[in-house]
Amino acid sequence: MFELRFAHVTSPTTPKGLAAEYFAEQVEELSDGRIEVEVFPNSELYGDKDEMQAIQSNAVQVLAPASAKFTTIAPSLQVLDLPFIFEGLDEIPEVVNPGTAIGEAIYTNPDLEANGIKVIGLWDSGMKQLHANNEMLEPDDLRGRKFRIQPSDVLRTQFDTWQGIPSPLAFAEVYSGLQQGLIDGGENTYSNIASQNMHTVQRHITELNHGYIGYILTVNKRWYDELPEDLQSAVETAAERASEFNRSKAKEVNDEAKRLIQEAGNTKIHEPTEEERDAFKKLVVPSEYERYREVIGPDVIDELLERDLEREER
Fold first, then answer.
1. At what angle do helices 274-284 and 153-161 cross, to 10 degrees?
2. Mean pLDDT across the chain, nearest whole number?
3. Contact by Cβ (8 Å): 126, 251
């Protein structure tokens, strides 16, 4: 019998939470019960501050952290934090797969391997929206206001460029930070906003779809390598199935979360025009891409800029 502990920081009802439960079911089924899985949501076991250390020490065997959390051990994974790399979730399978430069940077990342971590999938939370207590119709509306970010240099300089004040904060502390006025707003998916009740203390959301929250499904490499070959296959297959399940649920869950936020009636959702969205984009593309060319990798940056050019020409 092998034990697999899977810890994460979000609610069980989010795309990550649903996929974690599905992954656990698949592992137990495919292993004929030889791998026993326990899932710990909502930072019950480990949170933002200690989950990376937990998987490296094998205190947990599987995590699906947002890519931003790998900044200190695998800086190139900040590619997923770059603004405007996807127009929507439909683009992700095409852009991020093991056959692209971006996919290779994720799935065969040497820095992760050196830290004893193996990538087995990529899960979607969804596209990010800006939320605050003031309207955000143009970049100048962010000036001087504190926005919670994940601990990523890319996200820090993105908000610096928009004249906001980036404020790293653990996910579990965001609601209280907003409620107490320690921060003015943040960037999040609809599912994260709704599941954490952020909308109850935020009067405005701008549906900018400017960024992506992707969760990198990882396993402790030492634990994985010690599994018999058939159980390694079971874990890999479960990861593939859970990734497909997650992607099918992400849009559904975010659409439902947006509906619930609208029904609550406390928060006005602004859907920007193409011109309004472009005002935010032109400040950070391609400048933020070029800023991180050497950190993320020239091939990856070139591939992203080429894709963006192709989009503009359509």
1. 120
2. 95
3. yes
